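To the structural biology subgroup,

Please find below the input and predicted structure for Small ribosomal subunit biogenesis GTPase RsgA, which we are adding to the shared reference set this quarter. The sequence is reproduced verbatim from the submission form. If anyone notices a discrepancy with their own records, reply to this email rather than editing the shared folder directly, so we keep one authoritative version.
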Amino acid sequence: MRRYGKNPDEDDIRVRPNSKGTRPRTTIRPKHEDAAEGMVLTVDRGRLTVLVGEREITAMKARELGRKSAVVGDRVAVVGDLSGQKDTLARIVRVEERGSVLRRTADDDDPYERVVVANADQLAIVTALADPEPRPRMIDRCLVAAYDAGLDPLLVLTKSDLAPAEPLLETYGALDLDYVVTNRDDFLTGGVDQIRERLAGRVTAFVGHSGVGKTTLVNALVERQRTTGVVNAVTGRGRHTTTSALALPLPGDGPEGAAGWVIDTPGVRSFGLHHIDPSRVIQAFPDLEPGTAECPRGCSHDEKDCALDSWVAAGHAEPARLDSLRRLLATRERREGD
Ligand SMILES: Nc1nc2c(ncn2[C@@H]2O[C@H](COP(=O)(O)OP(=O)(O)OP(=O)(O)O)[C@@H](O)[C@H]2O)c(=O)[nH]1
Ligand SMILES: [Zn+2]
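Predicted structure (tokenized):
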């Protein structure tokens, strides 16, 4: 699977300046052939902050885009005033095809599932080992969302000074999940390198419930940021005013001049799992998947004849994993955030 960020040279989402003549053009596009390519960093009430080269500009959707949305992480083509000066406004005339989408669940205020992050290739699931207690169900839901969106999950276990990681990791042992264990004291001694390594050259969306230490972690990661440009300008605006995700560059060189991207997602209470087929849910449980071979056709995996019970009874997987799968299947239709 091609994922944005891993092989920027092979990326077919980008519009290369010299691609004229080598590629067929659609009839709509020539109008904006001189458009600049950018990446959406955040969205605030119809105003989008777009990184174009080294410059951060404010833009809005051009009318011709219609209902099509542009979200954080989107590659967009912009025209108009690209100076980035105060009170200037550019127009987004095109949203490039997305390599991946993360959706959030519909809620009472907004009945539609919406894409909140585009083009991420990794999902960092931030969970505290204590205070607050880890929530395996929430982790499972995130895993399902990650697998469904084609993102590599990365379990980030924080506050290791308060509790050991082993019990939780044991539960997920069969999943062969990539994980990092962190704590605040490590950050002070440069201990974020372990996680930095996992983020290098990639676009990683960070999710986690309030209080797990996500902000502490993200700040440690983006701290040594160049003094001008993206981070300071964006964070200076006051996060609380926006429910949008926010793309933050990791210091160093790489695609778009950053060593990788952290996409902080304050507004994502829960992922939209409504659209996910039960047969895809099972993909988040590779330890259980082989056990479904003997299931009756169209098995819900939560019925009397389900073969998973005997699979687990035979010792092929942990009973806790099957419980987790079943809880997930049962709660998939609900709108809960945990
Ligand atoms: N013991 C301990 N406390 C931590 C650690 N990291 C963060 N904290 C504390 O946990 C609390 C929550 O941290 P935040 O970084 O604000 O957590 P958050 O997930 O961003 O939560 P919100 O800001 O509510 O969204 C703060 O009081 C932090 O000081 C850690 O490694 N160990
Ligand atoms: Zn079954």
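Summary notes: The chain has nine helices and 13 strands. The chain has three domains: 8-95, 101-264, 278-331.

Regards,
Lab coordination
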